[in-house]
Write a structure and sequence with these properties.
The protein has 18 helices and 18 strands. It is α/β, with parallel strands linked by helices and 482 residues long. The strands form three sheets. The chain has a nine-stranded mixed beta sheet with strand order 3-4-5-2-1-6-7-11-12, sandwiched between helices. Strands 15-14-13-16-17-18 form a six-stranded parallel beta sheet, with helices on both faces. 50% of the residues are buried.
Length: 482
């Protein structure tokens, strides 16, 4: 099975969120499972050039706006599977991945270049796996190329929705010079053009990042105006929970943390906790639980609840540590909370890179994810691996991956609450802290989490089954047409 994965971001090259973790880890996991997988992603100016093996080609011709520019493509083996990086400084050397008014143009060019590159890489892939709205353009174009070019006759597409709320909207008038005017109806959504909608319509199969989220996006509450389309294509939709790359997220080998620890030797976690307290300038009170959160500072992540419950969280006896950047109102809230309780609240506003995230996961006792919605979530799975107990709202992938602890059976790896309310969240925080004060029970909860198998090998096999299904259907269709 030859699989091309297209993504606007991927670890270890560039990252803003979970999409990058997934794209890099899935490429590697598919390769380990025996697939001929490779990744195509932009070469941003922030990519560490030390990860690159060299120039793969320096003359990739891309049909673009009536011209045929030639651009370099770099190659990296950092994932133990080939990664090809599209080098177009005009679009990708901007110091950031998203946030410009011409984002739709930037990623339409990336998709066009990625498809041009496929013709230079030998045999056509059986599957092109496109991720989120930046790759919606590629899904539409691959559908057209399959009908027009023998080279792509057997190629099928999977389109993965990582967050339906981000839809890649732009002016419909721009479709003609991007080369998609023929497919205007696929893009149109309430008077604007949506790359996400077009990708959903054009794909042979759809996936999203957890079974529950696959159901939730078919409802008006979480469908963001596309629930009707998700219901219409539900027979093509698979919910496959993301995994964890245990080569990167492993407390036994993690080079970013103060001390290593494992299921059978957890003493190092206490050293990691001490290190974390020192990093945030908090008192070295090792018996006081640390509640941590790492996320974008946006409403989706539950910061409204945290703001409402701030006093109750500290009254429960915990430290609170937050890492993230985003909306000014939440940054201001965290700063004021820290200023009011500098010995209890530690904050880092911004993106500090992966090491600090690893240090927080290793040193915290409780990881809080009170999301309004959460397609999958990764930090709850990272937390379990590091013996940090998650407290989450029962939505999306959080509900799929966290099982509430049951004292009668000693089963469960965390704590879940249902209603999106500060009192419901506080109740579960208090319950978690209560069991934290009972070390024998707390160790059992930690062990339950550390032994949960959230590896990418499980998810990769499910994706391979999906690829096999659509690739086989595609071959049968081509043979019957002949």
């Amino acid at each position: 099975m030859r699989v091309a994965i297209l993504s606007s971001e991927a670890v270890p090259f560039a990252k803003t969120g979970g999409l990058a973790d997934v794209s890099g880890a899935l490429t590697k996991a598919l390769h380990a499972a025996g697939a001929d997988s490779f990744l195509i992603t932009p070469l941003y100016d922030q990519v560490d050039r030390g990860l690159l093996s060299g120039t793969f080609i320096d003359d990739l011709e891309v049909e673009w706006r009536g011209k045929r520019p030639r651009i370099p493509v770099w190659i990296s083996e950092a994932l133990n599977a080939p990664t090809y990086l599209i080098d177009a400084p005009h679009y990708f050397a901007r110091g950031k991945i998203y946030g410009d008014v011409d984002d739709f143009e930037r990623f339409a060019f990336f998709c066009r270049a990625a498809i041009a590159l496929l013709r230079r890489l030998g045999d056509a892939p059986e599957v092109v796996h496109c991720n989120d709205w930046p790759c919606g353009f590629a899904t539409v174009e691959m559908r057209a190329r399959r009908q027009q070019e023998e080279f792509f006759a057997n190629t099928r597409t999977v389109f993965s929705i990582h967050n339906l709320a981000y839809q890649g909207l732009f002016k419909p008038a721009d479709l003609w010079w991007l080369g998609f005017s023929e497919y205007t109806s696929d893009f149109m959504l309430k008077g604007t053009a949506s790359a996400l909608k077009a990708g959903i319509i054009a794909a042979d199969a759809l996936s999203t990042v957890s079974p529950r989220y696959a159901r939730e996006i078919q409802t008006p509450e979480q469908g963001y105006g596309l629930d009707w389309l998700m219901r219409a294509r539900s027979d093509r939709l698979a919910g496959i929970a993301n995994g964890v790359d245990y080569e990167i997220w492993n407390p036994e080998t993690d080079t970013d943390i103060a001390a290593h620890f494992s299921l059978d030797a957890v003493a190092g976690k206490r050293e990691c906790k001490l290190d974390l307290l020192r990093r945030f300038g908090l008192p070295e009170e090792l018996d006081r639980p640390i509640i941590a959160i790492i996320s974008r500072l946006v409403g989706q992540k539950g910061y409204d609840l945290i703001r409402q419950a701030a006093g109750g969280i500290l009254d429960a006896g915990a430290f609170f540590i937050a890492l993230g950047a985003g909306a000014r109102e939440y940054e201001d809230f965290l700063q004021s909370w820290h200023d009011a309780a500098p010995n209890r609240v530690g904050i880092y506003k911004g993106y500090a890179g992966e090491p600090l995230a690893h240090q927080i996961e290793a040193g915290a006792d409780i990881f809080l994810m009170p999301s309004l919605f959460e397609p999958c979530g990764l930090n709850q799975m990272y937390s379990m691996r590091y013996g940090t107990v998650p407290v989450v709202r029962a939505t999306g992938g959080l509900d799929d991956t966290v099982q509430s602890y049951d004292v009668a059976t000693n089963k469960g790896n965390g704590f879940k609450f249902g209603p999106y309310s500060a009192p419901a969240m506080l109740d579960k925080i208090r319950e978690a802290i209560y069991f934290y004060t009972q070390p024998d029970i707390w160790v059992k909860i930690q062990r339950n989490g550390m032994t949960t198998d959230n590896s990418w090998s499980v998810a990769a096999n499910k994706y391979l089954e999906l690829y096999d299904e659509i690739a086989g259907a595609g071959q049968n269709q081509v043979q019957s047409s002949r």
